[in-house]
Amino acid sequence: MIRIPAQHLIVCATIFAAALSAADDPGGWTAAKWGMTDAQILAALPGQAVRLDPPEKLNRSSVHIPELDVAGTKFHVYFTPDKDGLLSSVLFSPIGSPAQGLDAVFQELQNLLVDKYGRPWKTDEQGNSEIQWSFPTTVITLSRIKVSGFGTQFVHLQYKRKVAVPL
Questions:
Q1: What is the domain partition of the chain in residue ranges?
Q2: Alpha-carbon distance 167 to 111, whole Å?
Q3: pLDDT tens-digit readout, 131-158
Q4: Which of 42, 63, 89, 127 has the maximum number of C-beta atoms within 10 A of its C-beta?
């Protein structure tokens, strides 16, 4: 039988607890949780979320936050439903051209996400960048797409409900 000193067990338990708390599954974004209806999202985010009239055709959103400041950059936030009308993703898109540039916005968002959720689960940096955090019910994806030839790029942040895969 191997005996481990109590102080080592305490240190290991503390490190394990810190790792778990750094990677808590958000189950949605802030008070908007997966599976909520539009009415529930509006009630959960009073004074922020409002109805889109008419709904956004591209992502089927009928609830959004027209302007949200995140680290000095203004974002449009779309709450996207699944085919049953229940919240399945939250998409952040910068409004206009941020003064500090999209590379700086991408880096700032990455820093905020690492501070909150820990190191990313997956990173892909081949010209375009995609960084991903994966949790039991949520996948968070921060992406930067550079369109060569046009000298433009896009930065998006998405919280998405994980879909259970049937066995």
A1: 6-161
A2: 36
A3: 999 999 999 999 988 776 665 678 899 9
A4: 63
